[in-house]
Amino acid sequence: MDTPLPLWPRLIITVITMLVASYVIGLGWQGVFGGSIPSYVAGVIGGLAALPIWDLLKRIGPSAK
């Protein structure tokens, strides 16, 4: 009954989450420090933001009709 969300929708949502998290942190970094964020820091932040989203999406299945 609890079938997980297929791989491709999970992957797309996770990548979008990574990009949005990196972008938002980059804007905050630029506002606070006045410069661009190092790319490795943005990557780490995006990856860490994606981990709980991936786990959540593995638990959520498609809606039952």
Brief descriptors of the model:
mainly alpha; single chain; 65 residues
What does this structure look like?
- The chain has 65 residues and is mostly helical.
- It is 74% helix and 0% strand.
- It is built from 2 helices and no strands.
- Helix 1 (7-33) runs antiparallel to helix 2.
- The longest helix is centred in the N-terminal third of the chain and has 27 residues, at 7-33.
- The termini are close together.
- The mean pLDDT is 84.
Total helical segments: 2
Order of helices and strands: HH
Helix-strand makeup class:
mainly alpha
Whole-number mean pLDDT: 84
- Gross morphology: elongated
End-to-end CA span: 12 Å
**Beta-strand content estimate:** under 5%
Q: What would you report as the Rg, rounded to the nearest angstrom? A: 15 Å
Q: How much helical structure, as a percent, in the residues?
A: over 70%
Write the layout of secondary structure elements.
Blueprint: H1 7-33, H2 39-59
Helix pairs in contact: 1-2
Quickly describe the structure:
With about 60 residues, the chain is mainly α. The chain is about 75% helix and about 0% strand. The mean pLDDT is about 85.
